[in-house]
Amino acid sequence: MEDLIKKAAQDLANAQYAIALSGAGISTESGIPDFRGPSGVWTKDPEAERRAYQSYGKFLENPKEYWEERLRAPSLLGDLEKTQPNPGHLALAELEKMGKLKSVITQNVDGLHEKAGTKNLIEYHGSYFKLRCSKCGLRIGSDEIDLQELNRKGELPPLCRCGGVLKWDVVHFREPIPEDVARRSQEEAWKCDLMLICGTSAVVYPFAQLPFLARKRTIEKQTTTESGLHVVKRAPATTIIEINAEPTPLTQEGISDYLIQGKTGRILPAIVEQVKRIRT
89, 113, 125, 172: which one is catalytic? Predict the structure, then answer.
C-alpha cells in the first residue's frame, strides 16, 4: 500500500488539473450511515426507501404536503448539524489549498466537505442544508427561512423571490440532476488529467458515469521503438485512482488505473504528506 500511496502522490504532483469524486465511504468515517451497506438506512428500513421513492412525485403534486411531511420526519442520517469532517475530508481541502486539487464533486448531502474548507465544491445530489427553487434554480441556506414558523402559520410551501416553489436541495429518486450541477460536473470530468475516486461504490448513476467520461478523453503520446522509430499513439488523458474499502465496477472494468484499498481517512492524509515531501 505504501508504494501505491507514493505513486498517487507523484501522479498528483505531476497533474495539471486534478479533481476528486467522493461518496458515502468518506462520510461513514464521520459516523454518518450509508444507504445500502449491511447497516445502511435502506437495508435496516426498507419502508423508508419506499417513501423516498415517492418524495419527488409528492413535491410535484402537492408541495405543501411534501413540506409538512418533511418537517415531521426525523433525519435519516442523524444530526448532521453536529457531525464533523474527518481526516479524509480535511485532506482533500488541504490538497485544494495547496493548489493540487481543482474541485471536489460529491454524492454526499451532509455538508462535510464545506465544513472541512473545500471551496470549489459541486454537490451532485444537493445539500441537506440548502433549499433550491424549482423555477429559477436559486439556492439558499435552509437557515434563511423559518420553515417551522411557516408551517405554524399555514404558509407552506416556502416561495422563492421569483415566485417559484422552494424544494429541499437534496435530489430525490426520479428527480433529474439540476442542469447546472450536471453541466459543471461533466466539464470537470472531461478536462481533468487526474481523478481521485474516494469512498464511492460507483454504482449510482448518473454520478458513476463521470469516471467513464474522463476515461474517454485521449491525447497523443510519442513513443520510441527499439529500432529508434518515433511512433505517435493515442493514450488515456486522465489518470484515475480509486481509494475505496473494496474493489468496484471501475476496478473490475479497468476504468481506474489502480486501487488503493482501505479507509479514505487514513490514505488521503498519507498522500498529502507524500505530496508535501515531493514539493520540498
Answer: 125
